[in-house]
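Researcher: Let's continue the batch. This sequence belongs to DUF1214 domain-containing protein, and it's 375 residues. Same format as the previous ones, please.
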Amino acid sequence: MLTKPFADAIRTAEQIITSAPHVSGEQDLAEGYDYLAGSIRGALQMAWAYEKDNPYFVRSTGPWTKMGLDNPDTLYFHAWLRDDAEYVVTGVRGTTADLSFQTLDGDYSPVDVPGSLAAFDDRELEIGADGAYQLRLGPAPKAAMLVVREVFSDWDAERPGMLRIERADRIGSAPPPVTLERNTRRYGVAGKILVSRLRTFLAFAERFYLGLPVNTLTPPRVTPGGLSTQYSSVGHYDLGDDQAMVVTVPASDAPYQGIQLGSMWYISLDYINHQTSLTRDQAHVDPDGLIRFVISERDPGVANWLERTGHRRGYVQLRWQRLSRALTAEDGPRVDIVAVDDLPKQLPYYEPISAEAWRARIAARQASTAARMLG
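Model: Same format as before. Here are the structure tokens for DUF1214 domain-containing protein:
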């Protein structure tokens, strides 16, 4: 049976979900099976996009194919590469806060992060008045994948660009016809991708987050993985329903600054229908130049509320991108754990938001996410 390796991989993947160490109830399992469904879709997409001679960009992750604590503000694209070939990337620069490129020597695994062979942003490109650019890559020893990230700070105003990749010596050619042998290989590859991505990112969270003291955040540091202009601050929380984590951080002059929450599956929380992430442009900045984010289950009645959506435990990550200088601890966050009822006294510029205004914020997220994902 041609699909048997993939069917076997799904059974193994289900065992990974049901035996995950954080699973403690029906809700964890329900979210795990939802994560599994998205991972199945993502694995099939990646396997069928494994085309190095006639490559094309695919969405690496999105609202329904989440992995690796995906950033709600980012459109992720990837294309597979041969290390002995030259590729031409043609694009039109949109109006997003950042556009970056990275070549990797492989994919993530449970024990390793792929090596970054090159990482740069569009400031190194020659971009025409119409926004058009062309980038030539390779041949490059060990090059296996090109990753492109398009990052939004203002979801309403910024627009994505256009992107295409071609192998230089095969422009105008067509891939070979589909064969049973090729499909057999691809179902096998999809199964390996599925099992690997589930194991990898559960191990990744264990390695980089869960060893940190709970309810704390690290000083800003260069993000693991080789992104040339990104710093991040990470941590994990464990909060009661009457508690709030107040994250206070200076409003940065970097083009992109954002914060997000993630579940114990190491994926973003629902950022379409709930405010589980904020960029500097979306956040309320206090008169002293600081942003005070409030992470809690109960509604604290403030504009910078990050909704836990029923997740007592989870991950927190702050990112700064397109930096022109190194960040220090002074640029990073301070964390305070307070009672939700005490927030009016604890926040120096406490300013309540009405239920109508909050509903308008969510409606704007829904509309702008829909537009961005179709862009």
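Researcher: Any comment?
Model: The chain has five helices and 17 strands.
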